[in-house]
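Duplicate of #3305? Posting structure anyway:
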């Protein structure tokens, strides 16, 4: 694809500037992406997913006798699933020029833990379970903008609503562009982009401070942040804004070419140029940043190997395009129906199960003074046999009527892979340990499928993160690894002249399988007993705190025992 360059010389247009032409093209690409996403997920899907996750009642206020019952079972099942998927310890192998680089492996593994990448993966899995897909983003913060004064490579999870991929793409391997949207204050944008100082206003509606700003009671002190808030004129209407702007990042593969002379300058010796004399203007892809009608950045993609720094996490196979089917759709209707049933049960209990008093008119009881409260004393006319008081109560509900909502919820658990076997209830009768473990393993088929779907995205995440670290973290630094015994420092050796193409990184797919990780911990004692692994490796696999110190103590005891045995033999 080709996007017009904002810096290319063209015929002057009195109505459009180069910036506006470029931004209009990005607007069209974003519109196409959003239209395809709405067709795939339905319009308003993300608002609906937000209400479902936050348990916001879409109906509004309801009568006291008919409360809206929300059963957050599916939400809890998804949190359980995301926890199991992130309960793994990804292992990477790094080689440089054909030799394994164990120092960089340890440094990268420690930096992975320091940046809490597993937590970001957990969040992306939650997004994918509720909103069809989740996204991880890799970024770089320059040394002048970090608290430590050193360049930082970070990973964060993104709201899928702020990501607009190529509608023709089926994965990250064949997309032509992707657009990201971030919200920030103008002062924040000025820290990253020099041209952000030309931004003057935004048309976004004020959310939290609308009432106070409209009444004039909200004032900011003098200084840079004074630009936040204030009125904004749009279509002859005055709208109050909170000062935040939408900064849009467009990553695309642009096939625009330029002459070698244009790239090198007029002083370049053309006699040494190859006959074609042209080269790609954006050999690694193109990155365009704009906000409020101003292009803030337009140049070559700064990420290595022409990669866009976005990784997609899926919870279901994506057979019909980039966006998969949200897992909540498979059973959410069952949960909603169970909630409606519980609502009806409560309403019936309140409205129908009220007892009714029948007082004969000759009983001598004044209905105005009769309260029907416990231990109440009323004098009944004993001169007639009809002077009695009766309490009539409707018959009790059938038992199956009360159990029906639970049957619906049990059906949902089965559809989402949370069977009784997964909870440790494989069935009645005597079951051997092997059959017990096998039943639990087979019951986690959805978790195993999602672990398999995570293998490729996490491999891509490890590659982008590692090569970005090699490119921008060129200084040497140490990462402390704390344990109960001591502080073990791991050193990252930065090299500004390093050729990143000489380094290869591979993520072990078996290390991210949640089920396999648990099974491996259970196998460690047996492997240790048979002498197939040493004590240090076994403790590390089981994740025991202070594994190195315990292993050292075991080795010292074994040495002392060996020396004592030799001394006895010598005597």
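Output from current build:
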């Amino acid at each position: 694809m080709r996007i017009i360059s904002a810096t290319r010389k063209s015929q002057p247009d009195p109505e459009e500037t180069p910036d506006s032409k470029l931004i209009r093209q990005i607007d069209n690409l974003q519109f196409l992406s959003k239209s395809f996403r709405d067709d795939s997920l339905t319009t308003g899907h993300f608002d609906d997913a937000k209400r479902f996750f936050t348990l916001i009642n879409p109906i509004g206020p309801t009568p006291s006798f008919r409360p809206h019952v929300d059963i957050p079972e599916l939400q809890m099942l998804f949190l359980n699933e995301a926890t199991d998927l992130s309960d793994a310890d990804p292992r990477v192998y790094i080689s440089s020029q054909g030799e394994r680089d164990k120092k960089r492996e340890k440094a990268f593994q420690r930096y992975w833990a320091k940046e809490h990448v597993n937590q970001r993966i957990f969040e992306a899995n939650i997004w994918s379970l509720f909103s069809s897909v989740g996204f991880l983003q890799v970024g770089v913060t320059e040394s002048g903008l970090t608290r430590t004064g050193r360049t930082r490579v970070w990973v964060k999870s993104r709201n899928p609503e702020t990501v607009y991929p190529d509608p023709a793409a089926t994965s990250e391997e064949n997309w032509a562009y992707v657009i990201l949207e971030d919200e920030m204050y103008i002062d924040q944008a000025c820290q990253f982009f020099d041209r952000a100082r030309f931004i003057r206003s935004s048309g976004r509606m004020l959310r939290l401070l609308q009432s106070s700003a409209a009444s004039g009671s909200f004032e900011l002190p003098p200084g840079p942040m004074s630009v936040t808030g204030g009125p904004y004129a749009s279509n002859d209407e005055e709208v109050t804004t909170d000062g935040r702007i939408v900064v849009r990042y467009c990553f695309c593969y642009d096939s625009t070419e330029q002459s070698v002379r244009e790239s090198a300058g007029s002083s370049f010796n053309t006699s040494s140029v190859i006959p074609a004399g042209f080269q790609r203007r954006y050999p690694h892809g193109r990155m365009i940043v704009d906000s409020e009608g101003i292009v803030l950045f337009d140049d070559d993609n700064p990420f290595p190997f022409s990669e866009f720094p976005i990784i997609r996490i899926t919870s279901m196979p994506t057979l019909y395009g980039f966006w998969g089917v949200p897992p909540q759709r498979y059973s959410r209707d069952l949960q909603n129906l169970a909630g409606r049933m519980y609502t009806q049960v409560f309403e019936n209990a309140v409205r129908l199960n009220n007892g009714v008093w029948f007082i004969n008119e000759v009983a001598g009881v004044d209905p105005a003074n009769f309260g029907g409260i416990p231990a109440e004393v009323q004098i009944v006319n004993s001169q007639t046999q009809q002077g009695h008081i009766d309490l009539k109560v409707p018959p009790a509900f059938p038992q199956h009527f009360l159990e029906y909502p639970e049957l619906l919820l049990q059906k949902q658990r089965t559809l989402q892979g949370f069977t009784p076997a997964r909870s440790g209830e494989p069935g009645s009768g005597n079951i051997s340990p092997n059959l017990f473990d096998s039943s639990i393993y087979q019951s986690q088929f959805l978790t195993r499928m999602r672990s398999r779907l995570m293998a490729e995205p996490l491999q891509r995440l490890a590659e982008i993160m590692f090569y970005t670290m090699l490119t921008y973290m060129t200084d040497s630094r140490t990462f402390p690894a704390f344990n109960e015994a001591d502080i073990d420092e791991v050193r990252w050796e930065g090299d500004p002249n390093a050729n990143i193409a000489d380094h290869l990184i591979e993520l072990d797919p078996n290390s991210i399988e949640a089920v396999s990780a648990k099974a491996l911990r259970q196998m460690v004692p047996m492997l240790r007993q048979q002498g197939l692994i040493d004590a240090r490796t076994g403790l590390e696999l089981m994740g025991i705190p202070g594994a190195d110190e315990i292993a050292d103590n075991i080795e010292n005891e074994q040495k002392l025992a060996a020396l004592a045995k030799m001394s006895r033999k010598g005597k």
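Confirmed duplicate; merging threads. The chain has a mean pLDDT of 79. The chain has 15 helices and 19 strands.
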